[in-house]
Design a protein that fits this description.
six-stranded antiparallel β-barrel; 3 helices; about 20% helix; alpha+beta; Elongation Factor Tu (Ef-tu), domain 3; about 160 residues
Length: about 160
């Protein structure tokens, strides 16, 4: 009953619960785990504790893009004529708009075009057209950084 009240797991080593105890645990939704080898118990608890840790989120910058011209198109919005300075910008990446080194916008790409074709990615040294999702205040000289967020699972030491 104490395990049910605190949402706990009952761990047993080299024992077997009685029928009444097993039935009461089943009715209350309490998990009973029985081990014959102590190292199996320790390893499983270690893995359970690691699962409770929040993962570290690492940001990796994949491209730096310079805005060279701004085109205002009716019904579409603002398209930025850009030059990819380094890396490779991909349509699925998150982007950050920097003006004078300060972040102005953080979001995603609405469209990525090369000449008149929609493309998935543009490499360094090429020009492209970029539209940001839900943001139209783009100026010449702004820098667009594309980045990916990766989760790194933390380990207990």
């Amino acid at each position: 009953m104490l395990a049910a009240a605190s949402n706990a797991v009952i761990i047993g080593f080299n024992i077997s619960p009685s029928g009444a105890a097993r039935k009461a645990a089943e009715n209350e939704g309490v998990d009973i785990r029985i081990y014959n080898i102590i190292y199996d118990c320790i390893n499983e608890i270690h893995l359970a504790l690691e699962g409770l840790l929040q993962p570290d989120i690492k940001e990796e910058i994949t491209a730096t893009v310079e805005v060279r011209q701004v085109f205002k198109i009716s019904r579409v919005g603002v398209i930025a004529g850009c030059y990819v300075q380094s890396g490779k910008i991909t349509r699925n990446d998150k982007v950050r708009l920097l003006r004078d080194g300060l972040p102005i916008f953080k979001g995603s790409l609405h469209s990525l075009k090369r000449i008149k074709d929609d493309v998935r990615e543009v490499d360094a040294g090429y020009e492209c057209g970029v539209a940001l999702a839900g943001f139209n205040d783009i100026e010449v000289g702004d820098i667009i950084e594309s980045f990916k967020l990766t989760e790194i699972k933390r380990k207990l030491t």
